Amino acid sequence: MASLEKYLNTTEKCKSLFESEIRRLKTPVCRVFLKGGKITPVDFKVSGLSVKSKNAAKVKEKFPHLVTANGDKILMAVAKKSKDKIKNKRVAVLFSGGPAAGGHNVVAGVFDMLGEDNTLLGVKSGPKGLIKGDLFEVKSEDIKRIKNTGGFDYLGSDRTKIKTPEQFEAVKKTCRDNKLDAIVVIGGDDSNTNAAFLAEYLSEHIKEDGSGVQVIGVPKTIDGDLQIGKHLPISFGFDTATKIYAEMVGNILQDTPSSKKYWHFIKLMGRAASHVALEVALQTKPAITLISEEIAKKNMSLEDIIEDISKVVIARAKKGKNYGVVVVPEGVIEFIPEMTKMLQELNKTVAENESELENKCLAEKRDILSSVMGAENMKLFSSLPEYIQEMMLFDRDAHGNLQVSQIPTERLLIDMVKHHIKKAAPEVKFATLNHFFGYEGRCGVPSLFDAAYTYNLGLAVGAILLSGKTGYIASFTDLEKGGKILAVPLTALLNVEIRHGKEELVIEKALVELDSPAFKYFAKNRERWAEEDLFNSPGPRQLWGPASKQMPVTVALNQGYSGLEINIG
Amino acid sequence: MASLEKYLNTTEKCKSLFESEIRRLKTPVCRVFLKGGKITPVDFKVSGLSVKSKNAAKVKEKFPHLVTANGDKILMAVAKKSKDKIKNKRVAVLFSGGPAAGGHNVVAGVFDMLGEDNTLLGVKSGPKGLIKGDLFEVKSEDIKRIKNTGGFDYLGSDRTKIKTPEQFEAVKKTCRDNKLDAIVVIGGDDSNTNAAFLAEYLSEHIKEDGSGVQVIGVPKTIDGDLQIGKHLPISFGFDTATKIYAEMVGNILQDTPSSKKYWHFIKLMGRAASHVALEVALQTKPAITLISEEIAKKNMSLEDIIEDISKVVIARAKKGKNYGVVVVPEGVIEFIPEMTKMLQELNKTVAENESELENKCLAEKRDILSSVMGAENMKLFSSLPEYIQEMMLFDRDAHGNLQVSQIPTERLLIDMVKHHIKKAAPEVKFATLNHFFGYEGRCGVPSLFDAAYTYNLGLAVGAILLSGKTGYIASFTDLEKGGKILAVPLTALLNVEIRHGKEELVIEKALVELDSPAFKYFAKNRERWAEEDLFNSPGPRQLWGPASKQMPVTVALNQGYSGLEINIG
Q1: Chain A residue with minimal CA distance to B447?
Q2: Whole-number Å distance between alpha carbons of B224 and B208
Q3: Is residue A224 predicted with pLDDT exceeding 80?
Q4: A408 lies in the same domain as A500
Q5: Which of A370, B92, B115, B341 is deepest in the core (most CB within 10 A)?
Q6: How far is CA B521 from CA A8, B280, B518, in A?
Q7: CA B225 vs CA A88, B229, B278, B494: distances in Å
């Protein structure tokens, strides 16, 4: 036991058996990067593929350098012709936004592609660190330590947006102080929008020779809402997060016919898009899954949703199945059209009647509101459970705005379904439990898919930089047929969106399309899943063995692949 | 994609790639069961080990047959001498209580050991099904389908206790109707207590030839509170549940230095004992882990606990670490001595002043209480957050009792630590999130440890039955040295406990011992874990590959093993 205690002490600081083995795990490398078994730079040539902004003229106006240089053509990695070696490049890499599994492997991929002749610098604490100039040199020991591990802790991250002229100026200073040739931004839609602006701003007169600093983006977000059809199958971190959630949902599904006791309402992280909920649904096949985009598109009311859920609960009860699972996307409330309408009027009314409403109890507040608000909105508000009404009236941020994300959607649904069933079918037993899976999905060790995907994205970024390009986002496609490395022009992804009342050029969040193969497959099968116990319990993600190579089901369907296994290299 | 859709349809009903592969996974078999590579019955001989009840006389009085037959001697499996084959035995197997990973493998083990010459019957819905006589024949196709899978859904389970004479009589009828020779009870401490009573009751005059029906118990519970020192290392399901929780806690730990934003308070299932919290702590090394048994033993007050947590939060903040993880066992509230005392008086006071308290608001209720209750208890009550006070006064069950399990301990701690820090160190930023991991740990696919442990327990049960014994619980020890199969007399585990004011003979729950190697290792190291980020993120449990064979750390420490890897067969 003394020897066991000694061993246990050596496992501290991420050196458990699993964590040690994971670092030794070989991730497959796309063949284009291999020459004689060694990682090697590539050329980027025009692929014949392109992507177009809906607001090309506006984009050209704001991004004269990038649009002239890159246009809307997607580049493709091909074997390198010349034997010239690029040397002495100094590249900085940073994480932006919430963590996602595989970030460390992007860093490892860039490092390995740059090789010994160039230098990789890590930016501490994300964009904030880039502004402050908080950089350090990445060493090969670090890469060994972080390879295949979860988290963003090697560099840290933050959510600063580089927007003001002073911030841009500060970044320029950081580039000059550190003699940077390039910056790699690992982030979501907003961060890659930022990367596009940065690429344009830094495109010339930065370095001593008058040239610019290259900027390349990497698609990260567990929400999966940064994807570009066939040109970018998915953002990294999505696979790991959904595999973690799918295991948990699957475990609970497996529990339901064992215990025959509860309906579990499970909220999953992801405020804007329902990709996570859809993926988990396809992996686990629960009785009910709400898809926010469908609710918005079909203009469903809250009552419609409650009725739909109740119908399934009652139908299953008739078959003796007083149990089941309902998967709820975190942001669903904001996709119910009547709800957004009501909240808008509520916000306005509360702001305009602040003094009158002060220090009143709920019933009194409701009286005041109903004398001002429209009947329909008031009816919806009054139909909500009282603690939700209270939250909507009392829990407001410093600007007086309701924190919609604070509303416990899963409990709201439970209470309203309970209420509905009590009236519609009082004989039905309906015991419930609720869960929220979120933070546990961001920093898990990457799945084999994410580990390979991110390492190859990192290699791609390194290669794009060595080829001298700027203003691209790296992509990795054809994942069932060896893999293809692409560089997609960031500016071609920008479209006009109204934010805070102002026109802005941004990368739009990719939402679940109701005509996508993944959603259509879900829609075609969900009624059977609601009626019978056809669920899966897909288990913990495997890093070794026969079940390790699975990719996200939504990706395989939407990319038109013939199977679920990755085949890279 | 058509072919992908077709494939996806074939994965319904637990036939995903992972679930299909898991069924094919070979679990190691203890050598004593193998003859020429085939599973074969064994003899059970006296091992030299024994276990003694503290109330032997009382036990003998209640269990004359069993005590005479089995005494307190632990039996050990050895190679079978004779070549006689036992035939035509009819054995019934049931699950009792909440699900735990590996239950299906116990059934598979019993089935494989009984072989083709005997019949295994499954009892539907636990003890309730035994009373009703709801049995069906287990077929080899079923075993192929359930092997290595999670959940108790193959048989179902329930929490009925067989207590009344009518219930015992009904079980006797079931035995006769189904011509049973034996019953296997897979359950926790209470279910195995029940198995002892059943074994005594059924020990003679049940079958036509005047002989009895054998009853054998199997130690199940994710809480890990059914263990007997070196004679029974752990109940099954504990390893899988703690590995699932440890992955989640590890993922969140990995998130903390990535985001540098939150203290996460994580409640883990397990109301009576803190084995789960201790095991997860040893696997993940968070800043703070509460152990209920220590709190009780050291007579710590709620304020002591709040102060201890706050100290760590403040000390870490000074090092720039405004983040961390606190692991909280579900039942901790009931282990705080002053809390139990206060709740006792509160329950009494509320019951005695029911009419006076009715329809009063919280402040008024508090006034009434403070005129009746002792000052110390009242002070503690008033120190709690108001919503907790309200819960304690308003949320009572049909008998007027407080549902202690309903108290959101993790939120209570957060609020009180927040309050404390605001006074003690107002400059410290303390943002929090809370989690509860419970149900997702009960029905996951068994870890390799649990899969092997339960399959061998099942083989052991089958072999004990074939050897003609009754009134034993199956055990599997020496897990790092090939494994040893034991049969422990159930009656020797019974001790007197006061339940509902009455003396009862029960198997006591095994709590965390403060002088156990596992707790001592934790206590020796936790201060360092609180100061620095020394955590592990032990990852998802692996069923294949180099990291698949790990056993629980508490088991390895308490059994005095030299490493963490199982070595069976």
Answers
A1: A540
A2: 40
A3: yes
A4: no
A5: B92
A6: 10, 13, 5
A7: 61, 11, 12, 15
* Those residues with Cβ within 8 angstroms of residue A348's Cβ, 6 or more apart along the chain or in another chain: none
Answer whether A1 sits within 8 Å of B560, measured CB to CB: yes
Are residue A260 and residue A303 in the same domain, yes or no? yes
Q: What is the mean pLDDT of residues B233-247?
A: 98
Q: What is the pTM of this model?
A: 0.97
Distance CA B106, CA A266 (A): 31
Picking from A433, A536, A540, the nearest residue to B16 by CB comes out as A536
The whole-angstrom separation of Cα B368 and Cα B61 is 50
B237 sits in the region (left: phi over 0; alpha: psi -120 to 50; else beta) called left
Contacts of A563 in chain B (CB under 8 A): 3-4, 7
Q: Is A561 exposed, middle or buried (0-12, 13-18, 19+ CB in 10 A)?
A: buried
Residue B9 is assigned to a structural domain of this protein: no
DSSP string, A282-339: HHH--SEE--HHHHHHTT--HHHHHHHHHHHHHHHHHTT---EEEEEETTGGGG-HHH
Q: B552 with B279: CB under 8 angstroms?
A: yes
- At which of B388, B422, B441 does a domain end? B441
B398 with B492, same domain: the answer is: no
CATH of the domain at A373: 3.40.50.460
The H or E element spanning position B328 is strand B324-329
Domain CATH for B173: 3.40.50.450
* pLDDT score, position A407: 87
Q: Identify the active-site residue in A181, A223, A225, A239.
A: A223
| B271-308 pLDDT, tens digit each | 889 999 999 999 999 999 999 999 999 999 999 999 99
In a domain, B532, yes or no: no
Verify whether the Cβ–Cβ distance B439 to A264 is below 8 Å.
yes
Which position has the higher pLDDT, B1 or A13?
A: A13
Closest by Cβ to B18, choosing from A13, A442, A539: A539
Domain holding A396, by residue range, is: 239-441
Q: How far apart are CA A251 and CA A540, in angstroms?
A: 10
> Alpha-carbon distance A296 to A337, whole Å?
6
| One-letter amino acid of A32 | V
| Contact indicator for A184, A216 with CB cutoff of 8 Å | yes
Pair (A319, A419) in one structural domain? yes
Q: Above 70 in pLDDT, residue A149?
A: yes
pLDDT in tens, A100-128: 999 999 999 999 999 999 999 999 999 99
> A401 and A253, same structural domain?
yes
- A56 shares its domain with A205: yes
Which ipTM did the prediction report?
0.97
Same domain as A244, residue A220: no
The DSSP code sequence of A179-217 is T-SEEEEEE-HHHHHHHHHHHHHTSBS-STTSB--EEEE
B427 domain-assigned: yes
Note whether A157 and A274 are same-domain residues.
Answer: no
Asked if the structure places residue A479 within a domain, the reply is yes
- DSSP letters, A521-562, are HHHHHHHHHHHS-------SPPSSSTT--BPPHHHHHHHT-S
Alpha-carbon distance of A499 to B78, in angstroms, equals 76
Residues 6+ apart with CB under 8 A from A233: A227, A475, A476, A477, A479, A555, A558, A559
Phi and psi torsions of A562, nearest 5°: -95, -10
What's the angle, vertex CA A155, arms to CA A153 and CA A158, rounded to 5? 90
Find all residues with CB under 8 Å of B398, minimum gap 6, and list them: none
With CA atoms as reference, the chain A residue closest to B258 would be: A153
Lowest mean pLDDT across A394-403, A443-452, A502-511 = A394-403
DSSP 8-state assignment for residue B550: B
Burial B258-280 (b: 16+ CB within 10 A, else e): bbbbbbbbbbbbbbbbbbbbbbb
Final residue in a domain of this structure, among A510, A535, A553: A510
- Has residue A396 got a pLDDT over 80? no
Domain count, chain A: 2
